[in-house]
Amino acid sequence: MDTGQSNTRNRIWTTGSLNNGFFDENQQPVNRSLLSGQMGPVRAFSGNGNADNGESKEVSFHAISPNLISVQSKFRRSYYHKVVLGGLVALVIILLITIIVLSLTLRKSSNICRSKECIRTAASLVYAMDEQTDPCEDFYKFTCGRWADGHPRPDSATSNDWFRERQAHIMRVLRSFLQSNISSVEPTVVGMAKTMYKACMDTERLDERDLEPLVNYLQKFKLLVMPSVFNLTLSSGSKYSMDVVNFTYNWLDTIVAIKLHLSLDLMIGFDVFPDPLNRTLNRIALGTPESDSAFPFNNDDSHKLLRKIHRRTIYMQNIDETDDNDNHSMDEEEAAKQTGPGLNGYVLYVHKVIEKYLLYVDPDINQEEANVGITELVKQAVKVARKIHTLKEEAENSTKPAKNPVEDIVYISVLELQNQTDKNIAPQTMPIWSRYIQLILADTKHAAKTETINTTTIITSQADINYLQNMVEYLQETPAMHIESFLWLSALEELVLHTTSSMRLLHAEYMRLVIGTEGSTPRSLYCANGVNTLFGMAVSYVLADERFTRETLPRVERMLSDIRRSFDRLVRATTWMDAATKRQTMQKSADMKSFIGFPHWLTNATALNAYYAGVEVNATTHLENLMGMVHWQMLGKINNMDKPEPIGWATSPSNVNAFHTFQSNAITVPIAILQYPFYDLGLEALNYGSIGTILGHELTHGFDDSGRRFDREGNMVEWWSNRTINEYVNRTECFVDQYSHYYLSDIGEYIDGELTLGENIADNGGMRESYLAYRLYVNEVGPERLKLPGLEHYTHEQLFFIAFGNLWCETYTPAASRYALEDSHCPGQIRLKGVLSNSEEFARTFKCARGTAMNPEKPKCRIW
After folding, report:
1. Up-side HSE of residue 393: CA atoms within 13 Å toward CB?
2. Fold for domain 211-499?
3. pTM, whole model, 2 decimals?
């Protein structure tokens, strides 16, 4: 790659002038000057390693005849001997110098790591770095200044970084596997995953089926094929006419069906999870609805960003602004003038989608009247969505979070929740909660009568109770048709991507308009990602490598052990923790489970098939495959709610990430992240600087501002002394203040130090623990002797930090940068700067003077 830098700077390694390209039979570089000291015939080569004029020359060395010296002159003879003796001495000195230089050259050359791992890592680091930048002023630019040049953001993506790039690599591996023929030697469920992929790829079949699967599921959700709003706009006497005045709608049946088949919360949030105070018990939780879709294929980064923009524009802009143009026969520019880019894109998109849908269900529909109906439907749906969002915000602001989250937990019976709801809307009543749970449980082994459900204790919070009560009050006052429009459009948006090519094209245009992506993910990768989301363990079968178990796993476990020991040393060294709290903290660390690589049972066909027992797929029914799989997952969660949640894998092995589970006191490190550029980098300094800091990050999550509240059993109890808690909180305020002062000039926003606190604590602690773990490794195994080619001028400690910096290289679109601020993780450049500016070890290693950007004057934030 031409980077505009000199060849010398970018060269990985070369047989330069010191050895002139000569190697002995053991492939050790040999300096050509040694050859000139040999006696007898030798071949003299030109500097480029070829014989002069294309031929080799023989040169003879002979003893000088004494007869050539005059016997008359003793002086000249004596002088001659002196000259000869002096020449011999000079020759010896030259030979000695040559030998010394050669020895140093060979030693220097032998200290260069030439393994393929080292060469690959060196090339990656060198081409990413901007070594003209002072590392003490901007270490992100120093390590990542040219990274974007070699890692352009895909046209279909809003951002790019190492995690996304390597996930794309894993997806290509999985795609190749899913494209292969079904084998009789593979577990049955692996073949089922390949069948699901085939169904997803069969776009001809999808177009042939048209919107029939969509219509079928709308009916399954107890929604009308033609929404009721069209009875207000279509001609009198239409086959869709109905009694609008007396129209009623059982919306509860619809939101339950959508929850069970799409795993999507609409108006009511439902979940089943371990009791925070006793993880051996599972409880039903009711509260505010989750805003993100859990439906696979719709959850990649671009779709998530699209939803954020969609929500913000709908909630902040008034849909009534478009009322004066009811026919909506507008182009994109006209729509943009009226509503702005966000709402414009959404209104334009759903209008076209519904238009196509109506033509499918009724080819003879009056288009002009239909347009009026579409406008009214969208307006009704958006108003309901905005109101629900407002109710959520009001509920969150109605209560002040307790200092101890345990105090926010509310245990309440279903009957008591109903009584409080009725009291809020008195004198009216609206029986809802028992009926809702009864419908959720109906097709499971926990199906129960109303009396039994009424006595069931659920888990919620006061803010959630406030939301549920106000939501019921709002629904009582809202026309049933508006609620129907909201639910109908919500379901349509989730399903339409999985129908025809024309519908997917409309969505691609919508994404281009709103978030600026120029391309789309290839269908093959799109399908591979979706199948991986649903069949993660089955698809990861291809990644299960026994060599990993033999070779890599022990090394990673050794590294994690070193990091635990480092954490223990840091805990012992603290002055703000009392002795009892220190002991319990180290005990929790010792008890923390780790799941590394892949489950041992993944290669066991019987066990893998049992994991997916009850799943069915068909090569010709793509949407039904997806819905069936999600429904299977939801029923499994509900059916197993009477059993303690097993402590196990938090994700599939194919995920390029790592996880900490508070209630399991466990970390999960998939095999997908135990690869270049996170691991297997050639030198342990690099491995500890990369994957080591990730391992430390996950371990430290067990002791961040949230993790510290869970004991070693995974229960939320106060297990630290009050004095220690107060000292801890004081130290977290330093981090909040530090990160809140980081300003992103490209978008004109500051980092939210409160939102990102937990991740910042984990970043800082994880890096320090891994650095100390590397020092432990060096003390026990010995210093690393080999240098990295092209980066020989850096010490191993410096390479540790360079590897850490390289982790966070990234590139964003402006839209992605802005919405990244809503994430609990800081942007990569802030993660890097925040951690290293708190590190005395970094400042010492790079000799950064106090007062430089990376070693500021203000006190450094530190907990561990």
Report:
1. 8
2. Neutral endopeptidase; domain 2 (1.10.1380)
3. 0.84
